[in-house]
Amino acid sequence: MSAHKGFLKTRFFFIIILFCVMFGIIFFVPSSVVRPIRIMFVTIITPVQRVVASFTFEIQNVYQFFSSISELKSENERLQKERLDLLAENARYLSVMKDNDDLRKEIGLLPRSRFSLKASMIIGYDASGSGGFLLIDKGSTDGIRNGMPAIVGSGIFVGKIVEVFPQSSRIMLLSNRESLMSGITLDTDAKGIIKGEYGLGLLFDMVPQTDVLKAGSTVVTSGLGGDVPSGLLVGTLQSPHLSSDKLFQQASILSPIRFDDIHYIFVIQDVL
Hints:
By secondary structure, this protein is of the alpha+beta class. Helix content is 38%, strand content 30%. The chain is built from 3 helices and 12 strands. Strands 1-2-5-4-3-12 form a 6-stranded antiparallel β-barrel. Strands 6-7-8-11-10-9 form a 6-stranded antiparallel barrel. It starts with a helix and ends with a strand.
């Protein structure tokens, strides 16, 4: 009870009573009587309202500012993602275009009048790093068999099929040290064996000393002793010399292609 009486004597209670009286006067007493009081009250309260409105406006601006930052951040993240997606899509597009151009170039050079060919893509390289084998994406289901020769361009011989799987095949390249192929020079008919040199290059070996061997001569497959047809380009002779035993002539062969740059290979399935 004493606390209740104490509250009634407080300044806060007095202010509440004053506002209630002023409110009653302003809204229930005829306006002609209380107009001066209303003017005074509005004049007093206006600065407070201005401060409150300004404060509210500033709070609203701050809220909108941080909201706009959040929206800009989200928009920036969306645009950045779209940019990366477009870059990736453009890279894929350029890659496909390059592959298509390469394939059209290869097809345009194919000796279609001589061979029945199966186009294939390189999907793997020699795991040992010696460059002696390639894996292509065509296999037994595509009619590929062991011994079939493989070419690029207009008939550049690169190797033979040595292992066939249902959906892929393994090619031993000419540069493989176990590769042996009968060859002949076009200008002098010098005959010899084309050998791989540990994946590093090609050697024209076992050429009889009676044959004429010249630098710059073109070496092609002879078509002897196997499934490889004659006339497939191998390369150009470099610096002929005698073998270490002095019994034969030999020369390194410069291939017109880089075996590690091959993207497409065409398997000769039949000679027409």
